[in-house]
Amino acid sequence: MRVIRHRGRFALAMVLSAALAAATACAGDDGKSSDGNEKITLTVDDFGTFGYQDLFKQYEAQHPNIKIKERTVPKLDDYTPRLQQWIAAGAGAGDVVAIEEGIMVKFKAQPDKFVDLKKYGAGSLQNNFIAWKWQGGMSPDGSKLIGLGTDVGSMALCYRRDLFKKAGLPSDRDAVTKQWATWDDFINVGKKFTAAIGGNTKFIDSPETYYNTILMQEAGKGSNQTYFDQNNKFVMESNPAVKAAFDETVKMSQAGLANGVQFLSDPWSQALKKDAFATAPCPAWMLGLIKQYGGDSQSGKWDVAGVPGGGGSWGGSWLAVPTQSKHPKEAADLVKFLTSPQGQVGAFKAANNLPSSPQALNDSAVKAFDNPYFNNAPVGAIYGPAATSLKPVYLGADNQEVRQAVEADLRAIAQGKLSPGSGWGKAVSDAKKAAGTG
């Protein structure tokens, strides 16, 4: 499923062309917007775990003429190029598409490619969303509502309580949180864990997950930007948030704490199943992924603690309707349903995706929810209070390409293929090439 970069442009083109052909055959191919009786299929493109299966069934029961087909790609990095190809081609995309925060800027620059949801009654829904989440779905000039918000990535940290006990470390979530107030404290705990456990079990899952967590924390405390400023000028070299996150992540690798695997790759999922790492950064959406890939055998072994450095946000998406959809009204109605306060509560209960709706955040089903998979951690209480105070971090149009380049260098350091001393210079050089400035 993953596009292999070193095979070149021809291979990439073949993959995307095949995906485009298949998608065109099944997305929105059965006529114009219906009169309420015509049988139609709405295709929904998303990635990861949005937790919509029960909501789809509920919607279909309420709308007997509508069938929903979900096309889910596990990895965002595989999903994005396909969506870009479909949107650029004007064909192949679903009637509803999920747009993650890291690629929203790129699509907002193409407002003509998306339906204005205000034309289908969404303009009155502003109070259903945190202010910045609503604004994040608007076109740059404020004239069109391109997307309605799904979740936000309020931050915590997941850990294997059984492995912590085995290492002689505190395993109670409050005690765990107290022992790593800073990231340097976290590294010291990791050294103790490694000395006690040894073997093939690393302290952290992947250098890139920790890098992105620290980066979003640091950016949120300062300039609210990462690789690009609000004018999309490349500012990685001059942004202390990026350097601080890079340096702290390198420290983890130098201490021998890191698996040098790519997040959500097959080696990552196998490492999870084989108890090969003891901690993972946990924006709210990560809970669903750990449960999905960890399976029943790890239920109750994980728990959720506070994140070093205090809070932060990573992730979150919007749902949009491409203008290529043949059923824009029905698609817009589905978007409104899925992103309604009730829909966001349903997605939270299914996959722990933290709502961007104040009403949903205040719902007792969210506030009082204890997650049995994570040792009954009170995830509603852990994640919810911080959500309304989160500040959006600006991510430029080429954010994903640059992020992938930097992550590859961090993995190379963890694998011993790149020296820490030359890592930053190479990361900057690779990032510039990815951004088209080097």
Automatic annotation (TrEMBL):
This protein's UniProt keywords: Signal
InterPro entries xrefs: Bact_solute-bd_prot1 (IPR050490), SBP (IPR006059)
A Pfam entry, by short name: SBP_bac_8
Region forming the signal peptide: 1-27
Protein name, entry field: ABC transporter substrate-binding protein
